[in-house]
Amino acid sequence: MPNKSMPKKAPRNNALFAAQRYVPLRKLNDIFIESQLAVQGLQTIRADFAARQAKKQTRYRLLAPSIKADPVGLSRNISTIIELVDARISSKEYVQSLVFSIALIED
After folding, report:
1. Helix crossing, 14-54 with 78-91: angle to 10°?
2. Is 52 exposed, middle or buried (0-12, 13-18, 19+ CB in 10 A)?
């Protein structure tokens, strides 16, 4: 049973400063989430191209803008694309972006 003779504690104004304190942590968490989504995306792309390769598709074609902004066709062997994606996954470039982000937030 609370003692009614005891004065109530004055409310703290931590709520005013809490948002500012957690901004760097929030940014870091957002970058981590984005990095994990990028890895999952790379794994999905890799699975898609492996399925294309299993269906005997050998090349992948897409349109990309040229210097004059006109669409130009690009193509690559699917095996080359799989190697590129594997290299991105194994090199863990997303970890490097996290380290860089931590350095920015600490400054």
Report:
1. 150
2. middle
